[in-house]
Specification:
Layout lengths: L1 H7 L9 H5 L3 E5 L4 H12 L3 E6 L2 H13 L3 E6 L5 H15 L4 E4 L16 H29 L2 E8 L1 H4 L5 H21 L4 E8 L22 H14 L3 E3 L1 H12 L1 H14 L36
Parallel strand pairs: 1-2, 1-4, 2-3, 4-5, 5-6, 6-7
Helix pairs in contact: 3-9, 5-6, 6-8, 10-11
The structure holds NADP nicotinamide-adenine-dinucleotide phosphate.
Length: about 300
Amino acid sequence: MDYWERHLDPDLSIDRSLRGAVKGKVVVITGGSSGIGEAAAIRVAEAGGKVVVVARDEEKLADVRKKITDGGGFVKTYSCDITDLAANDKLAKDILKEFGHVDVLVNNAGRSIRRSLALSYDRFHDFERTMALNYFACVRLTMNLLPSMTARKNGHVINVSSIGVLTNAPRFSAYVASKAALESFARCAASEFHDENVHFTIINMPLVRTPMIAPTKLYEEMPTVISPEEAADMIADAIIRKPQRIATRLGVVAEIMHLVMPKMSEVVMNSAYRMFPDSAAAQGKAKARSSDRPPRSDGLSRPDAGAFTGK
Ligand SMILES: NC(=O)c1ccc[n+]([C@@H]2O[C@H](COP(=O)([O-])OP(=O)(O)OC[C@H]3O[C@@H](n4cnc5c(N)ncnc54)[C@H](OP(=O)(O)O)[C@@H]3O)[C@@H](O)[C@H]2O)c1
């Protein structure tokens, strides 16, 4: 009996490594030309996945393409502003035409804005811009790919959200609300597609040392900031296990505090709000970001450098 359990259990033959999960599989990573997305793209390609990287800037795409192909991996890149919904539709069509299907979609491209509400009364566009990328673009691409996933009864959508949704981080109302919207979408979708073997994972990413947070000097000394490679580990874990949510201990503690002691957690976050002011850029004292300059004459979008202060 013991012999059969040790040798014939079908579970024993399942490869639970990233390689086992992605070898030969088509993995689309939006925002895969920088930071977390780039680290994840490299990791998946090293494990034998067919990586499809989507971002706007051609030069950054060429860089990641070189890194992956130099390492012997497979990658195809698409330059697309996914907030342009017609371009988003075409992107999905082009990917499906080229690969036939998508096994894993990682909704990772995002923009963040750290600015208090008191400085945002005349900045409704901050709320529109975060929703455009962090919510509508992700929903559009997911909806574009879902029919092919349900047809094959196989699919996985990973949404890179933020620890801010669990901590109700002050100064991040525009950003956190857009990520919370994406989380709610994913949770409802998961209820609809569970029996069709299409799964949804939310990752409440902690702070990660990427170009996104570079403008916020406050984060330089923070011990809880992880590297893009550690963030890629979280994405790899999501791909392998397909859990509903991945969060760090700090995020879980903050969420529990909010549920069990909501007023206390509000006081704690309010104290943090008073201790750490808006950055110079958020106060309008620093240089405007590249993406706030007038549109380029060739019609292409500017890269989204320094999004964490989101002038
Ligand atoms: N860094 C953190 O501390 C942190 C914490 C929690 C959650 N997150 C989340 O993690 C994700 C990745 O962040 P990151 O820090 O790695 O950012 P990042 O280094 O700034 O990279 C952002 C990526 O998104 C692409 N992108 C931006 N706008 C796009 C658009 N309209 N269409 C297509 N691609 C677009 C960028 O390329 P182009 O500019 O060339 O398009 C780039 O590849 C985001 O969703 C972010 O909200 C980050």
